[in-house]
Amino acid sequence: MPYTVPMAISAVSSIGSGYLQLFRAGAADAHGRPEAASRVQPAPALAGREDADPEARLLDPDPRRPEAILAARPADEAAEKRVEAGRAEAASRAKVQSDKRAQGEANRREADSRLGELLGQKSGMERKRAERQGERSAEVLSELSQLKSRDSEVRAHEAAHVSAGGRYVTGGASYTYQKGPDGGQYAVGGEVGIDASPVSGKPEETAEKMRVVRAAALAPSEPSSADLSVAAAAAQAEAEALADIARARMDEAARKYSAGSGPKDPGAKGQAPRASLDLLI
Fold first, then answer.
1. Domain that holds residue 246
2. Is residue 48 part of a domain?
3. Structural domain count of the chain
4. Is the pLDDT of residue 57 over 80?
5. In whole angstroms, what is the distance from residue 161 CA to residue 184 CA?
6. Residue 239 domain flag
7. What count of other Cβ atoms lies within 10 Å of the Cβ of residue 188?
8. Would 139 be classed as within a structural domain?
9. What pLDDT is stored for residue 127 in this prediction?
C-alpha cells in the first residue's frame, strides 16, 4: 500500500487549511486569538437602511415604520370591507334560514291545527255513524221481534183451524211470507181450506157438518173477520138444515095422523106435533 500515507496527510492538510481560513475571517480576541466568524449575516435588504434615501424608504417602506402602516391601510380597509360584506352575506343567509324555519314552524302549526280539525270531524262522523247503526240495530231488533211474534201467532191460528176442522179440512195451512232484515222468511198471513158445502138430501149430516165448520172457524183465540164470516155462513146452513129436519118430522107426523095411525084417545090429539117441535128444539 505505497499510496495510503500521502493521501491521509493530504486530507489532514485540507481540513487544517479550512480552519485557518475560517479563523482568518474573524477578528482577534483580547488574547490575540482569532475569533470565529459569525455565521449570521445582516439581511441585504435591511443593511444601511438608516443611511438610505428617504424617497427610497417611501418606495420600499419598512413594515415596522409608521409610513409602512399608512401605506398598508388601504389594503386593510379593502379586507375589512370584504369581511364586512362576508358578515352581511352570512347574516342575510342566516336571516333567510331563520325566516324559512319560522315559516316552516308556522306551516307545521297550521298543519297540526288542520289535522286536529279533520280528526275532530272524523270522530264526530264516526260517532254519528255509530249512533245511526245503534238506532238501526234497535229498529232491526224490533222488526225481527214483531215478525217472529206474528209468525208464531199466524201458525198457531191456522193450526187451531186444522185441529178443529177435522175431516172437513181440504188441505194443510198455506202461509204468506215476509222477508225479514236478517234474510229469514216469516209468516204474516195464512189460510186453511175447509169444505163448508151442505150434504145434499141429508139435513142431519149437513147440520152436523156445519157445527164442525162453525167450530173450526171460531177455534183460534182471536178469529179474523174471514173466520167470523165462515162461522156465520156455517151457522146459517146449520139452521136451514135443522129447519129441513123439523119440516120433515112434522110432515111425517101429520101423515101418520091422517092415516089413523095416531092414538084413539081424543085427548091425545095434538101430541104428535108437539113432539115434533120438541125434536126440532
1. 196-261+271-281
2. no
3. 1
4. no
5. 25
6. yes
7. 15
8. no
9. 84
